[in-house]
Amino acid sequence: MTPTASGNGQTATVATALANPLRVLVTLSGAVQQGVTVGWAAVGTGASVNPTTSMTDATGIATTTWTLGHVSGAQSATATLAGATGSPVTFAATATPGAATQLLLSSGNNQSALVNRAFANALAVLVGDQFANGVPGDSVSWLVTSGPATISPAKSASNAAGLAQASLTAGATAGSVTVTATSGTLTGSPVTFNATVTTAPTTASVDIGNFFFKSGRNNSSNPAVDTIAAGGTVTWNFTGGTHGVQSTGTPSFTGQSTAQSTGTFTFTFTSAGSYSYDCLVHGTLMTGIIVVQ
Questions:
Q1: Range of 180's domain?
Q2: What are phi and psi of 123, to 5 degrees?
Q3: Would the pLDDT of 106 be above 80?
């Protein structure tokens, strides 16, 4: 059993029938076989073939019509004849999304960021067809409706996966933020995002052990990265080995001139900037950064 020239490699919208039927040819020792029953099946939610069985005609050809399933992308269907060489025959097709009908929240909701910092993740919505397949090329408008933040761009188009994205940046004061994503009259539009702008803490704690600086707040290490407000104090706790804190780069701060193995070292940062440091004994094997806002 072999596929004929028509039926394979077609493209159509999800949940619609392909323009051309699927066709297979049944032969025996090179002679076409009439009256042989071939079974048909389609893979995927919503996919179907009609009929599910068909008999070969006088030319040895059996046919069916394939209606694609609900999920866009590659789909497949098969023709089966028990005992026949080449059975099952597999047909491939590509399903494209339908028209945009809905706007769905994808990612980026309920984030927090420090004042004057960008939020870590972009806000994203999915422009979907009736089955939530992503639809490209749809315009989405973004607007901060309340709170201390800005959004960019004001409009973005959905990409090949149907996602439209925008970046949110915290303002200079703390507070709650609400953002909307709007696309015409799509169901679910506008989509609402919530976010929170927070102020930097006034203290930070860094553990110094055997060959590491480790943030007590976020467990980052080598570099240990902490953010504090201007006027805030950092405390380094010596928990193992002999080490010291020395400032590197610009801006700088007053570090230690001698190493120690126990106790603490503290410094109050009065000016904004990103302060890098390493170990007085081990240099760049142990590093950290203090971001002062």
A1: 102-198
A2: -80, 135
A3: yes
Domain boundary among 30, 64, 96: 96
pTM of the model: 0.77
**Which pLDDT score, from 0 to 100, does residue 108 have?**
98
Clarify whether residues 251 and 181 are in a common domain.
no
pLDDT band at 1 (very low <50, low <70, confident <90, very high): low
239 three-class SS: coil
Q: Which helix (H) or strand (E) holds 2?
A: strand 2-3
Q: Are residues 226 and 255 in the same domain?
A: yes
Contact predicate 62/23, CB 8 Å: yes
What CATH number is given to the structural domain containing 52? 2.60.40.10
Measured CA to CA, the distance from residue 97 to residue 260 in angstroms comes to: 65
Q: Report the domain count for the chain.
A: 3
Say how many residues make up the chain.
293
Fill in the amino acid letter for 56.
T
How does 14-43 read in b/e, with b if 16+ C-beta sit within 10 Å? bbeebeebbbbbbeeeeeebeebebbbbbe
Q: What is the pLDDT of residues 107-141, one digit of tens each?
A: 999 999 989 899 999 999 999 999 999 999 999 99
